[in-house]
Amino acid sequence: MADVPERRPETAPGEVQRPAHRELPAELAPAKKGALGQMLAPVAGFGVTASSMFRPSVTEDYPFVKTPTQPRYHGRHQLNRYADGLEKCIGCELCAWACPADAILVEGGDNSPGGQYSPGERYGRVYQINYLRCIFCGLCIEACPTRALTMTNEFELAGPSREGLIYEKQDLLAPLPQGALAAPHPMVEGTDDDDYYRGDVTGPTQAQVDWMREHRPDDPSLEDVQTVEAPTTAQSGGHR
Ligand code: SF4
Ligand code: SF4
User: Fold this and answer.
1) Which of 33, 150, 179, 234 could lock 190 by a disulfide, CB 3.0 to 4.6 Å apart?
2) Where along this sequence does the record place binding of [4Fe-4S] cluster 2 (predicted)?
3) Alpha helices, DSSP H only, in the chain?
């Protein structure tokens, strides 16, 4: 029996079948360049650069002069505080669960009489945002039940190291409001977390200042503290 040459398969296993090359119709084919066009083709791409070199500059002297962003621009996050200095974050992790990029790490902790960081039972003990992952979508701030987490207009988030782009709680916490006391300290006397959420607490009270003077007399926030009266809803038992 005569040897039959082995027939090579048209497509090897795993290889993608490619369509046969076809000539484009004449009306769709690119126009053929003349001799001069072919000669200038290698430098033609510089035409845009050359023509732009003599136009007025449109840059805004960045980084010395920064162009303001739109008011609702999504920039770096911020962990907000109440007017008396307590933190708004309650460590619930809803922001972390809402994040599609898995960029947030939260570990909650229990508040205690000597370590009250936020109104209520819990506070954000560990809070990290990984800006190597964040896509600035804002879903985390929508998920936050206490408006603890918002986004600022700050956009300069580049850095020389990967570690530096993981922002810790101290990097994200808002500055202390004018006249407030640095946490931890007790809540305003007679209030609960509802009073804080409603905005009834407008600043630190004398009782909070007295507590601070007794427990942390060297805290620098005591120097500029401005006290207010406790909210009337709290004094009277109000809505509760
Ligand atoms: S802005 Fe979006 S990606 Fe960034 S931390 Fe929030 S939810 Fe995650
Ligand atoms: S930032 Fe808001 S959503 Fe995230 S843990 Fe704190 S309170 Fe919860």
Assistant:
1) 234
2) 99, 134, 137, 140
3) 35-44, 46-52, 94-98, 139-143, 169-172, 193-197, 206-215, 232-236
